[in-house]
């Protein structure tokens, strides 16, 4: 893709740092906003979406962009920090034009858009002038393009017709371009999209990736995506989610759908979720994680450190090991105490956990209200806490992130 000095392609802009004229970093460019001006004029580029600290996405008009280079974007620094809201006629290039099907006006076939070129006019405005298109053989379908013979071409905006916004659209390019993005940031990008595009991209994700992203979306959008997947795929995704997050999502569904999904899930995974759903809302048991790190008093410090190093553990869950009598599956045998990560790091590797137990810190009851859990965590400066039933058996652990989700307003993920 060759460019002139005043031309730049959107894919090269995504992820670039945005600075003010003094060199202070404003945020990171996440998308470009264009406005259609009809079939006989190129689309106008009206601004960019910038992710500022706090993961908020704001709109920066092109009138405030002083320079767009291959390594950075410089703006005037005067930015409205209100969260970006897409207006009816606006289109997000990365989210909605990448992967869109096009047809060539000369009747020579079709393809899909992989990139969009922007050029600055003599008047200083920016507009779309070229499309980088993956061209398929005549008769190949959109979803089959990546499995058929194809080649890429750079074409002027005048040479193509874009498919309507309501037509099915692939998600290959978008997912590949955002593969390294953290689940929370990917979820934020999905949240900004219209419902059609959100469902298309979600359906394209692998089960484990979709599970991680779903956990970071508002409840309404979680239900929307899960309902569109079909029961069998939805059950597979729920199996990949943390049990407490899966239980929260299932609680938003009607009883019939909930029962069907639990029946389709792996028996062990479903059992953990059923136990959480059995607790009254607002109790420790309803928000706890039923699979913390659990070992016996005879287990060594070396074994415990090996367990807490596991990549799938969150930092909060890795902060403590819970020591019990067998069985080790929740509900366990008698709860004996906890060993915190600092104690593990200070002890000799062969030392048994039973010798370094914190026996003074009491666990919380599984029916205790969230307010009591919060006070307990704050009083003793903890990031996690064991949860026991009336028989003194460990049934799970509750972490700071578990209670934060329930203390924050329901719309905290989407509102300023």
Summarize the structure.
The chain has 416 residues and is of the alpha+beta class. The chain is built from 16 helices and 19 strands.
CATH top level assignment of the largest domain:
Alpha Beta
Number of helices: 16
Q: Low-confidence runs (pLDDT<50, min 5 residues)?
A: 1-5, 137-148
CATH topology of the largest domain: CBS-domain
Provide a descriptive summary of the structure in words:
With 416 residues, this protein is an alpha+beta fold. It folds into four domains: 7-91, SH3 type barrels, CATH 2.30.30; 95-172, SH3 type barrels (Roll), CATH 2.30.30; 173-278, MgtE N-terminal fold (Alpha Horseshoe); 294-406, CBS-domain. Helices cover 31% and strands 25% of the residues. A hairpin with a 3-residue loop joins strand 4 and strand 5. The two termini are 39 Å apart.
Topology:
Layout (H helix, E strand, L loop, with lengths): L6 E3 H4 L3 E3 L5 E11 L8 E9 L3 E6 L3 E4 L4 E3 L14 E3 H5 L3 E4 L5 E11 L5 E11 L13 E7 L3 E3 L9 H6 L5 H9 L3 H10 L2 H8 L4 H11 L1 H10 L2 H8 L4 H10 L2 H11 L6 H4 L6 E2 L5 H8 L11 E5 L10 E6 H6 L17 E2 L4 H10 L4 E5 L5 E6 H8 L9
Helix pairs in contact: 4-6, 5-7, 6-8, 7-8, 8-10, 9-11
Keywords:
416 residues, alpha+beta, SH3 type barrels, MgtE N-terminal fold, 4 domains, 13-stranded mixed β-sheet, three-stranded mixed β-sheet, 25% strand
């Amino acid at each position: 893709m060759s460019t002139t000095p005043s031309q730049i392609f959107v894919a090269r802009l995504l992820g670039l740092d945005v600075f003010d004229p003094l060199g202070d970093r404003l945020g990171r460019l996440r998308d470009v906003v264009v406005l259609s001006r009809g079939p006989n004029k190129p689309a106008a580029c009206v601004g960019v979406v910038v992710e500022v600290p706090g993961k908020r996405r704001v709109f920066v008009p092109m009138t405030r962009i002083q320079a767009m280079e291959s390594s950075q974007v410089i703006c005037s620094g005067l930015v409205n920090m209100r969260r970006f809201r897409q207006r009816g006629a606006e289109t997000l290039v990365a989210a909605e034009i990448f992967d869109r099907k096009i047809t060539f006006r000369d009747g020579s076939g079709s393809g899909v858009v992989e990139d969009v070129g922007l050029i600055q006019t003599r008047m200083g405005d920016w507009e779309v002038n070229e499309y980088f298109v993956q061209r398929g053989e005549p008769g190949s379908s959109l979803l089959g393009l990546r499995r058929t013979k194809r080649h890429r071409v750079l074409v002027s905006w005048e040479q193509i017709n874009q498919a309507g916004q309501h037509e099915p659209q692939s998600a290959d390019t978008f997912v590949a371009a955002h593969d390294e993005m953290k689940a929370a940031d990917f979820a934020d990008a999905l949240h900004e999209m219209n419902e059609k595009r959100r469902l298309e991209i979600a359906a394209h994700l692998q089960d484990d990736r979709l599970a991680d992203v779903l956990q970071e979306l508002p409840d309404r959008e979680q239900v929307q995506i899960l309902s569109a997947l079909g029961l069998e795929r939805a059950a597979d995704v729920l199996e990949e989610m943390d049990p407490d997050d899966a239980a929260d999502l299932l609680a938003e569904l009607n009883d019939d759908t909930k029962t069907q999904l639990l029946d389709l899930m792996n028996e062990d995974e479903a059992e953990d979720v059923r136990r959480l759903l059995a607790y009254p809302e607002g109790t420790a048991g309803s928000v706890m994680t039923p699979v913390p790190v659990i070992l016996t008093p005879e287990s060594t410090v070396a074994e415990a450190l090996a367990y807490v190093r596991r990549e799938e553990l969150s930092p909060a869950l890795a902060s403590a090991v819970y020591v019990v009598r067998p069985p080790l599956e929740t509900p366990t045998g008698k709860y004996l105490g906890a060993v915190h990560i600092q104690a593990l790091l200070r002890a000799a590797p062969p030392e048994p956990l039973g010798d370094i137990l914190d026996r003074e810190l009491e666990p919380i009851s599984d029916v205790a209200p969230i307010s009591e859990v919060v006070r307990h965590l704050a009083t003793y400066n903890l990031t996690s806490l064991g949860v026991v039933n009336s028989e003194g058996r460990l049934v799970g652990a509750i972490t700071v992130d578990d209670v934060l989700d329930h203390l924050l307003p329901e719309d905290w993920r989407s509102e300023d």
